[in-house]
Each structure stands twice: as structure tokens, then as C-alpha cells.
Design goal:
It is a single chain. This protein has 3 helices and 4 strands. The protein has a single domain, classed as Alpha-Beta Plaits. The protein is α+β, with helices and mostly antiparallel strands and about 100 residues long. The chain has a 4-stranded antiparallel β-sheet with strand order 2-3-1-4, with helices on one face. The relative contact order is 0.28.
């Protein structure tokens, strides 16, 4: 199993200055996937197996593309065979280090 964390950002282009509602459509797809995920001000990160995560990213892009003439996608992936729970474990490690 190829465990993967994917941080991605979907930006609709050609729809004006306010893109938040369309970005929310992408996040809605991610949350409906049931995979562990987290959204912050810049990226949505999703964790799972390579094929399932990439399928969700594509669905999120498709959801935005249904309302925008062009979509920009930024993506960063951390691929580690056999690793699960990294979405929380990485943050917990940093928080522990900060307390010490």
C-alpha cells in the first residue's frame, strides 16, 4: 500500500475576484470522500492510498471546473509505503517538540 499525503490548492480562473464559493465546492468533495483531511488558509491536505487520494483531487478539480473556464492546481505529495495516520502524527510531532 502506498500511503500518501497530498496537499493541494484549486483556484478557479476567469470568474472574478471572489473565488471562495467555488473553492468551497472542492473542499466539499474532499470532505464527502470520507478520507482524513484538513483545510487551512492555503491548502487542503488529504490522506489515503495513492489512487483514492488522486481520484478525490480530480473530483475536486472537476467540481470547480464545472463553474470556471480555467482551473489552476498546485499539489505537493508525501508518498510513504505502509504509513497511515501521518496527517495528525506529523503535526503532533512538531507540537511535542515545541513543548520541550
Amino acid at each position: 500500500m502506498w500511503g500518501v499525503l497530498v496537499a493541494f490548492s484549486v483556484t478557479p480562473l476567469g470568474v472574478g475576484d471572489s473565488v471562495g464559493d467555488l473553492v468551497a465546492e472542492a473542499v466539499r468533495v474532499v470532505r464527502a470522500s470520507g478520507l482524513p483531511n484538513r483545510t487551512d488558509a492555503m491548502f487542503t491536505t488529504i490522506e489515503g492510498e495513492w489512487d483514492e487520494v488522486m481520484a478525490v483531487v480530480k473530483q475536486a478539480v472537476d467540481a470547480v471546473a464545472a463553474h470556471a473556464p480555467r482551473v489552476s492546481v498546485s499539489l505537493k505529495a508525501d508518498v510513504r509505503p505502509g504509513v497511515t495516520g501521518a496527517l495528525d502524527a506529523k503535526v503532533e510531532h512538531i507540537e511535542r517538540a515545541l513543548r520541550e
